[in-house]
Amino acid sequence: MHPYGSGEGSSSALEQRIRPDDGRQTMDTLRRHLQSIDGRGYKAYQILEGRYAFPSFVLAVDHVQGDPFADPSKVRVIVPRAKTAVRDDWIQTPWRRIRCEDVLARRVHEALRKLARRARGTGKSGLIAIDAPGQKVIERTAVQIGKDEIVICLSVGLPADGRRVLAREAAIMLLEQIPAVVERAVFGVREADIRPAVELADQQQAIRQYLREHGLVAFVANGSILPRESGVSDRPLREGAVPFHSPPQLEVAIPVPHREEPIRGMGIRRGITLIVGGGFHGKTTLLQAIEHGVYDHVAGDGREFVITDSGAVKIRAEDGRSVADVDISPLIGTLPHGKATTRFSTENASGSTSQAAGLIEMMEAGATAFLIDEDTSATNLLVRDARMQALVAKSGEPITPYLDKARQLLDEYGISTIMVAGGLGDYLDIADCVIKMDAYIPHDVTDEAKRIAAAIPTARRPEGGPSFGAIHHRVPQPDSLNSQRGNKAKVAARGRHAIQYGTTDIDLHALEQLVDDSQTRAIAAALFYMERRGWLTKGLTVREILDALEAQWDRDGLGSISLRQGHPGDLARPRRYELAAALNRLRTLRCAQREG
Fold first, then answer.
1. Cβ(64)–Cβ(46) under 8 Å?
2. pLDDT for res 117
3. pLDDT less than 70: residues of the chain
4. What share of the chain is helix, strand, coil (3-state, %, to 5)?
5. Other Cβ atoms within 10 Å of 593 Cβ, number
6. 267 backbone dihedrals φ, ψ, rounded to 5°
7. 339 secondary structure, DSSP code
8. Which helix (H) or strand (E) holds 94?
9. pLDDT of 243-300, one tens digit each?
């Protein structure tokens, strides 16, 4: 994959665009440009756009902001990889390359953080920033390592006094500070700075491979620290956290490279797993660690070896969301007054219909496991006990509870379930494994749960028939994506949980596995890319669209769908499931259905 893919043109042409020796201007040219515009109106900064050959790298000024209060200017630093410590074998696999890029992005961010940001005027004056990673390691466009070059994307707030150019301050930023950061963070990196991260990536990849080969959905290593610092911090809890230790019955030992002993911990097998226990004993904490285990974590996070099948999706109720032409009939049958649910649409879904739609939509996207927490679910979709069956006949209840569909999902579609259950004892009848959390310590109580289920029968009757039912794949219609707002297109991510798309907003607050603002920017860019390229005119199903987009990202790079082709430096790769979820929450979405 090319480090700076655009989705069009040959690889050699793309390489030519970023070769350091094609800079026709020099540092002195840049200095003279700055001197010539000192004190002029802010738009005079546009003279800086272009490429400048520094002694050890090329500085590309791709876009100059039109106003000191506007989004910062976009700058790339293009470094010959041969002059760095990044070895060939560290970029030969995707996970190693992504980890090396992550290390460099963190080093650049730390070097920028240590700069003393001087008071350089109004607005964003004096800002130099990179799209910095958090606790999780996600493929990003902030740093891209190719065969010959390393491309570093920066955001720079060119300084101004009011709306007048402060050339001397700009010169300090562009000619002194950025070179110093590159020297310290990129040329200063040593093998000892990268090797541990690469080896950790190899180990995490080995565990993921082990899960696939041995029928496991998730693995939680002994010694892991699962609780987070707070509800708004993804950092590990430092004081009072109980290290995780697997019950003996569930412990597995996974051999990994770069260490002699295997890594031991709890393996959750494919099937139906319940996490039970009293309130505040760690049930949800364990589930949250598992749901975030679809991503790799950095060393010291506490969850480095909490690894989950990449197809595991958290499903929850979401009152008020829109649903477009989803066949929810396997879970919710014909509604009162004869309203069919084989092509269910609504602008204002209830808890049960929203969760049912979410399940079907993620099946359509290719999910392999559902993660469900009783606390964030519609109870009437999860269970209907014997007393309620006696009081309300099935003929008057369109909802078939998930209790009666979970085993069918597993047998017919290979989809496992991991569920936090505090008060849903009926699920003991169908569970393959029951994990009881007691003061953050897990215990395997499967045998005890089975004895209790046999001794205290529920007397409820299974509902919904002998099979789950067919899935109808949907074909989004071409007019579903319309970015026009007035006379121009308007597509913008608003933080992590909202996208403005034309005249509508996409609400993503319920997507608990969407973990980075830059993923949301990438989703917005992907939707706009599909609209511009006419993808919805091809008659593709949602799954086919997701497959095609992932194939393009693997081939041409995440930057190939960027709204800013010259500088796609603030994107992080989303999973196909969050991308599908955003498309499904687009209130202008309209779909046809395809069987199969």
1. yes
2. 60
3. 1-24, 116-119, 563-566, 595-596
4. 35, 25, 40
5. 15
6. -105, 130
7. B
8. helix 94-114
9. 999 999 999 999 999 999 999 999 999 999 999 999 999 999 999 999 999 999 999 9
Residue 13 confidence (pLDDT): 32
Question: Under a CB-based contact definition with an 8 Å cutoff, are residues 144 and 101 in contact?
Answer: yes
The C-alpha atoms of residue 416 and residue 425 are separated, in whole angstroms, by: 19
- Decide: residue 478, CB within 10 A, 0-12 exposed, 13-18 middle, 19+ buried: middle
Query: How many of the other CB atoms lie within 10 Å of CB of 279?
Result: 8
Residues paired with 492 in a beta bridge: 500
Full set of structural domains in the chain with CATH: 11-189 (no CATH), 200-311+368-470 (3.40.50.300), 473-595 (no CATH)
Judge whether 297 and 291 are in contact, CB under 8 Å.
Answer: no
Residue showing tokens 């289920």: 453
Kindly give, in sequence order, each residue whose CB lies less than 8 Å from that of residue 375, ignoring residues fewer than 6 positions away: 284, 420, 422
Separation between Cα atoms, residue 315 and residue 531, nearest integer Å: 28
CA distances for 200 relative to 89, 110, 139, 296, 494, angstroms: 15, 21, 16, 9, 33
Alpha-carbon Rg for the chain, nearest whole angstrom, is: 26
Q: Is 366 helix (H, G, I), strand (E, B) or coil?
A: coil
HEC string for 190-217 = CHHHHHHHHHHHHHHHHHHHHHHHCCEE
- Compute CA distances 295 → 275, 285, 307, whole Å: 21, 16, 8
Residue 215, exposed/middle/buried by CB under 10 A (0-12, 13-18, 19+)?
exposed
Tell me how crowded residue 332 is: count the other CB atoms within 10 A of its CB: 22
Query: H-helix or E-strand containing 234?
Result: strand 233-236
Residues 6+ apart with CB under 8 A from 488: none
Alpha-carbon distance 299 to 223, whole Å?
13
**Cα 194 from chain centre:** 24
